[in-house]
């Protein structure tokens, strides 16, 4: 069976993103979508998260970077008053990224969709574009936020009402309606081999997008 899409879920720190990016490295020049980049202060402490568009990147970007005021795409930020979320980033930048994938699919080899199932769950323009993308012929690869990680996030950041049921609904739709393969990942070698098998099966025989121009 050829999976329509591949997503990983697992506890924070299991290495989901690291594994996916390693398996995608040789195909990266044709990537579209976004990475969720962790922002750190001078002591290495997490102070925020941002959406980082990945199209037209020659190499995989770092999953972390130093925080600077005014960085585009910050959707969670630590402030003197506490943690704040900015779901409107998904309504603007997030929806724009997905719209480009939908309008010009020939330009992308695959779609990288990182850490969905969080603050964007109630952002209708983004979720509508995500459903359209999952229903398209594009191959989407990414991370689905684990339910436990969402609950942990809710202890620090006010989440939308019904965030947990909405996340469960999203996972069910991804599997039942859109044919996503969702693997529980804890860093095992057998899991890594299966992830690489699926990615290579879908991408190794394709023509590299962007190099044909």
UniProtKB/TrEMBL annotation:
Keywords linked to the UniProt accession: ATP-binding, Hydrolase, Nucleotide-binding
Example GO molecular function: ATP binding
Domain of life: Bacteria
InterPro entries: Nuc-triphosphatase_THEP1, P-loop_NTPase
Keyword Transmembrane helix set for record: no
PANTHER family listed in its UniProt record: CANCER-RELATED NUCLEOSIDE-TRIPHOSPHATASE
Protein name per its UniProtKB record: Nucleoside-triphosphatase
Organism: Hungatella effluvii
